[in-house]
């Protein structure tokens, strides 16, 4: 199986767009002096205007994975000969409450009833509705696209159906990794419960990289307790941030080009845990302006607004970093510290010199899985950094998934 290395992996920002983003931020900073000293309430994303995405009033009456609504969608040029179906389903928030979530199911012309299902957790570095995969598939914004379309088309042509969940949930809780795992599992449940998709008896695999890898890795670890009835063939996870506290220390405390991702994660986690992680109450005027400017942003906005900054610039106090309640939220979303292990084979790949994520947390998690008897295939590829590692590892990851879906015994190099 061959997958081309596309230039779409590069995160380029056009000059006109940069001027627009920095103009928004500059205006926010100019107004910040008139803001109250403390603005404690979290900032939530603008509601999606499409009623399909709304949380139904009777959501608590449904079980996790129950289908709430479906919508056939127009065909997509990037996925030829493939039907597209939006599926809204009941899932669970990080703290146990009922929520509605959405997955996009691609059904190829070659699909046969009972044919394989791949749940692919796309990277969603975003805080607003426009960043959702179900929206990105139909946007005209050239900065938003499904980067792995070539690989996914190869899977579709093999007759696999592909589910693409909006795994950040209705509040776009970027950073809430456990939530992403639960939504992923419930999205699989929903797809298999929808008779017209022909997936009720399908073998299922999961895959994802970086933020999508977080959701995938958490789904694999949570499945034995959260969704034990699912028959999962395996999970391929790449470039996974396994420890959020280590991420804070790496990206947040000193000026960093990717500080925007750390700040976005703080905003997203506050949305999911407003009482336990009140970040907004700790921000100074500049921090509030930056927060408001990226509150509905996707990757490019988030990266541009945060580039070269740090928590010390935007916070009136950094006391929350040492607060036990805050640390407990970070720990609860750190797979390195989770006491459960997958009961399915896992393929894990990363760059050993990745400057964006703490590699030692991945190594520690891999060792724990090996000690617990997980069939783990670890692949450290020669890429020196995060994004190219995704491209280099994806062909082997998909070849590994193909073997699992065909029922071949899983290798392990523990």
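^ structure tokens above, recovered residues below v
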């Amino acid at each position: 199986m061959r997958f081309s290395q596309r230039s779409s992996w590069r995160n380029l920002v056009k000059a006109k767009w940069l001027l627009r983003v920095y103009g928004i931020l500059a205006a926010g900073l100019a107004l910040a002096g008139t803001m109250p000293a403390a603005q404690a309430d979290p900032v939530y994303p603008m509601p999606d205007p499409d009623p399909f995405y709304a949380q139904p009033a009777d959501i608590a009456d449904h079980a996790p994975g129950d289908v709430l609504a479906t919508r056939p969608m127009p065909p997509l040029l990037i996925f030829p000969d493939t039907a597209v179906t939006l599926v809204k389903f009941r899932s669970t928030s990080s703290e146990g409450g009922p929520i509605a979530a959405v997955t996009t199911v691609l059904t190829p012309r070659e699909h046969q009833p009972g044919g394989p299902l791949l749940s692919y957790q796309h990277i969603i570095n975003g805080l607003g509705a426009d960043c959702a995969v179900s929206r990105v598939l139909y946007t005209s914004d050239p900065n938003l696209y499904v980067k792995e379309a070539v690989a996914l088309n190869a899977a579709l042509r093999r007759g696999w159906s592909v589910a693409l969940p909006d795994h950040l949930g209705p509040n776009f809780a970027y950073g809430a990794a456990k939530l992403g795992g639960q939504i992923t599992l419930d999205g699989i449940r929903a797809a298999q419960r929808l008779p017209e998709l022909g997936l009720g008896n399908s073998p299922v695999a999961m895959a994802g990289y970086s933020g999508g890898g977080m959701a995938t890795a958490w789904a694999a670890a949570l499945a034995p307790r959260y969704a034990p009835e699912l028959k999962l063939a395996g999970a391929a996870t790449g470039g996974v941030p396994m420890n959020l506290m280590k991420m804070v220390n790496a990206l947040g405390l000193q000026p960093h080009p990717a500080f925007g991702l750390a700040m976005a994660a703080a905003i997203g986690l506050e949305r999911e845990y407003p009482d336990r992680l009140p970040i907004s109450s700790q921000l100074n005027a500049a921090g509030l302006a930056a927060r408001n400017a990226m509150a509905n942003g996707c990757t490019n906005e988030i990266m541009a607004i945060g580039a070269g900054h740090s928590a010390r610039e935007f916070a009136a106090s950094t006391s929350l970093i040492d607060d036990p309640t805050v640390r407990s939220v970070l720990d609860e979303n750190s797979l390195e510290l989770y006491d459960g292990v997958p009961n399915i084979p896992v393929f894990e790949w990363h760059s050993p010199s990745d400057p964006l994520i703490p590699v030692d947390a991945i190594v520690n998690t891999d060792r724990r899985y090996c000690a617990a008897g997980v069939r783990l295939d670890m692949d450290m590829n020669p890429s020196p950094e995060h994004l190219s590692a995704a491209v280099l590892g994806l062909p082997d990851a998909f070849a590994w998934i193909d073997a699992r879906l065909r029922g071949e015994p899983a290798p392990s190099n523990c």
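The two ends are 25 Å apart (CA to CA).
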